[in-house]
Write the structure tokens for this entry.
Amino acid sequence: MTKISEGRDFVVFSDDWGRHPFSCQHIMQHFLPRNRILWVNTIGMRLPRLTVYDVKRAVEKVTSWTASGNGQNMPQGLRVISPVMIPFSTVPPVRVFNRWSVACAVRGAMRDWGMRSPVLLSTQPLASDFVGRLGECAVVYYCVDDFANWPGMNAPELVRSMEAKLLDQADLVVAVSEYLVQTRPARTGETRLLTHGVDVGHFRQARTFRDTNAQAAPTPSPVIGFFGLIDGRMNVGLVSRLVEGHPEWTFAFIGNSQVPLGELSRFGNFLHLPAVPYEELPRHAAAFDVAILPYVVDETTAGISPLKLKEYLALDIPVVATPLPGVMEFGEILYLAQTPDAFAAAIADALRNGRKMLQTDWIDRESWKGKAEQLSDWIDALLTHKRCPA
């Protein structure tokens, strides 16, 4: 029986621990408490702009530099640090300062914890600036997206250069989609496919909430739902056509928006709720009759493997999506459509016929624990080959 290895030390560069649920945190929490993880909160790779969102994030980052990340709620075996960093640019002194600041902070935390020869694992190309400075025994690049083509990215060449360097340095590249496997090959090590997982039990709670809601107050009209970040990948034109053309449906969108929603908010059957805590998502999503993934199909979405797709499927409701490369492996249990008319027809079909056959069996095989066990196997094989100390 596969199990996760024990007694390893990891230094992880990724999004802020606990800020929002994301793949690296979902996977690495299964390595706790029998392994030690030093988690390094990093800054984003997009150059900041004078916007409300960027100012808010800047304040959060400055606050994190003086706050302890090791409060009582941290899992056993985890320590979190937030080194002082200046937003990335092509200015050499900035890169020099960040290398020095981050390396000093990480080495100090490693020394305090008695950590030596850790595995360096990163979801961020910017970690390439720190490889070789931390005494790591192996480097794993967990490639979760095509960051250079991320909506709003204003430093694509910088990101590409950092990622190319990290691909040269990595002993193992783990990518979440076939597109990323093909376009992000490790130069000297291996590249493996590890698609996103899902916390099936968490999202299946929606069944209970759904039954309770139905008894208390039946929904007057079908609810077509979406949750997640609303950004440039969203096909707002498609959604607008759907909302305007089908007043008999209620469209409920949950999540922070980085794009204007005025075009949609003018319709009475469009509801928008800002992001809710991960723990509360099943309760809100229990109102959905159909979940939708109305993304544009272009280079900005070619490499994504939408985390929310498997969360939708775990709700045990039908899912309608545009035919992104990263969703086609689930084609037989999805309703796929791209044009407004075809998408509306697919929603009507989903409301009429319900979820596809085998949806429950399929998603039950996609747990985060299983993904963590697979990653652990690959890392163990890598460390055995490199003769790294346990």
Remarks:
- The first helix runs from residue 23 to 28.
